[in-house]
From TrEMBL:
Molecular function (Gene Ontology), one example: DNA binding
PROSITE patterns, A to Z: HTH_GNTR (PS50949)
Domain HTH gntR-type: 13-80
Source organism phylogeny: Bacteria, Pseudomonadati, Pseudomonadota, Alphaproteobacteria, Hyphomicrobiales
Identification of the protein by name: DNA-binding GntR family transcriptional regulator
Pfam family, one: FCD
KW Cell inner membrane (keyword) present: no
Xref: CDD domains: WHTH_GntR (cd07377)
Source organism superkingdom: Bacteria
Keyword annotations of the record: DNA-binding, Transcription, Transcription regulation
Amino acid sequence: MAAKIISGLVEKRSLDRAAADVIRQAITSGALTPGKRLTETELSTELNLSRSTIRAALQRLMSEGLVKQKPYLGWEVASLSSNDAWELYTLRSSLESLAAQLAAANPNRRQPIEAAFEDLKAAAKSRNQKRITDSDLALHKAIVVLSGHKRLADHYGLVEQQVRMYMASSNAILERPEMVISNHQKMISALLRGDAAASERYAREHNKTSGQLLIRHIQEKETKQTNKATSRKL
């Protein structure tokens, strides 16, 4: 009897994760846009899963910061506010600058960094926004792994999906996809030559520049929305 109960729980958890994986992919690929309302009934029908399984999957994604639950309104895909962007870029700056500093001293850094940067270059040439975001995140995760700092990596993992969403928004407003390469060049060069101080500095500068650009972009949209809402009331 106990074995059947445990087996049932394992299967249910596996379905939760599988459903979360599908919905997460739809969000990070842009198929489900920020602010999109999500209903348990529709997702249950589309994925052929119970509402309780969908609810558990959405709760998992809520813990990752990808969806939000609004009282009486249900679920929706999370949107980045200007404050969200500020929190994420300052947090990224702290984690990734330390990771870059430590990774620069790793004797095995060259091959993983070169491979990840080449993949980002190929993604930029493809002009595929999802591929660019995936490669961008993979590059920064490679640096985090090369830092050899387990607790840093664990903390980065907690916000990884939010960072992915942030990167997608940040890269989408670049004038040209190729700019994602030049934005990383100084940091990559410093890492490859093993300059820890410069790696830390350029990682911090990279996050600050892209972060402030995204914040200004979001603030402009927020101002327009506020003005539109105000004009409707008048």
